[in-house]
Amino acid sequence: MKHRFLFLPLLGIYFASSAQQAPCGILPQAIDHAKIDQQLQGASKSQATLVVPVVFHIVWNTAVQNIHDSMIFQQLAIMNNDFQRKNADTVNTPSAFQAASGGMDIVFCLAQRTPSGQATNGILRVQTSNASFASPTSYSVPDPVKRTNMNGSDSWDPTKYLNIWICNLTGSTAYSAPPGNFMPQDDGVVCHYMHTGKTYNYPYGLGRSIVHEIGHFFCLKHIWGDDSGACTGTDWIGDTPNQANFSTNCPTFPKTDACTGTSPGVMFMNYMDYSEDGCRNMFSKGQVAYMNSCINTFHTGYLSSNGCVPVGIAEKAAADEVEIVAQNGMLKVSAKQTVISELRLYNSLGQMLRAQNGNAAKSLEIPVRGLPPGVCIVEVLLEGNSFTGIRKKVLITE
Ligand SMILES: [Zn+2]
Questions:
Q1: Per-residue pLDDT reduced to its tens digit, 21-31
Q2: pLDDT at site 39
Q3: Ligand 1 centre distance from Cα of residue 113 (Å)
Q4: Ligand 1: centre distance to CA 62 (Å)
Q5: Is position 213 annotated as part of the catalytic site?
Q6: What is the CATH number of domain 313-396?
Q7: CATH T-level fold of 2-304
Q8: Measured in angstroms, how far is the CA atom of residue 282 from the centroid of ligand 1?
Q9: CA distance 67 to 65
Q10: What is the pLDDT of residues 110-129, one digit of tens each?
Q11: Structure pTM?
C-alpha cells in the first residue's frame, strides 16, 4: 500500500487529464476458446524461451506526445518484469494468492531488423496532423492510428512483430483485442502517451495499461468475465475466483463480492482487473498457461521471427572478420579484428567432425585431409563476441 501514498499528490493531474477515459477500450470480442483449450490440453512444457520482437510506433502531433526513448525502454522493462513475474511488487501479492501466481518464459525485445531486413532500434517516430485518435467503435473498419494513409503508421507484419502504437488517445487509456478481431494488419496494442512507461499519472502511471492490453492480445478476458455484476460469465481461467465486476483504486484485501462471498475473495491485484497500477502485481498460473496456448495457436509467427536478430551480425562477421582459405589439405582460418577461441568442423548433417582450441591466435590451421569430400561447415568462435559463432560453408575435395 506504500505506492498509494506516493500517488496522492498527483491525483489532481489525473483527474484533470483523463478522468473521463475508460481504463481499457476493448470491445466485445470473439475468442476461439475451444481451440485454445484444445492446445492447452496437449501442451507440453518443454519449449524454449519465447522471444517477441516489439516495434513501438510513436504517432505524435505535438512535441510532448513524442515521448523520449527512455520511456520506451522503461515500458519494455515493465512488460518483461510483469510477464516474467520479476516485478519488484510480487511481495504485495497476498499470501493466499502467491501459489496461484505465475510468470511466463517470455522475452519482449525491441526489434533489431525491419520486415525488409534493415537495421532498426524498434522505435518509429511518425508525425501526424491528427490532434488525437479515438478508441475504436468497431473492429471491422481500418483503425486510423495503424494506417499511414490515415495519418497513422502502418503495422509491421503482425505475425512476426508485436506492434504497439503510442498516441494522443481519446475514449480510453489503452486498447487491443485478441487475434482475429481486428483486421489482420491492425493487430496490436494502442496506448495513450501519458500512460506509457512510468509517468505516475494516477491511477495508470506505472506502465501496466500495456501489460493489461498484451494480456488481451494473448487471449485473456477481463478477470470479472465482462458480465456486469452477474456471476454467470467466465474468463475461462480456472484459478481466478469468480468476480462480479471490475475493481477501482486499490481495494483492501480481502475483497469479497456477490460472486465470491468468502475470503480470500476476488483477485483484484490481477493485471486483468481495473485496479490502479500500483495495486496490480500478478497473472495467475492459469492465465499464463492460457496465454502460452494462445500464442501457440494464434501467434505462431513469433516462434520463427528473426525480428530481434541484429542485421548482418553473422553475415558481416563472416565477410569482414574471418577469412578461410583451403590449401594443401588444411583450412587456414584468419581473424581480422580479434583472435580465435575455437574452431569446429561439422558435416552437412550438423555432426561435429573436428574441434580445435584457438589458443587466442589470430590465425589457425585445421587439417581436412582424409575427410569425406563434400560440403563442410566451419564454425569460428571469436574472442569477445556474444554470438555463438561464425559459420561458413567449405567444399572439401579430394
Ligand atoms: Zn481490458
A1: 799 999 999 99
A2: 85
A3: 30
A4: 27
A5: yes
A6: 2.60.40.1220
A7: Collagenase (Catalytic Domain) (3.40.390)
A8: 15
A9: 5
A10: 998 999 999 899 999 999 99
A11: 0.77
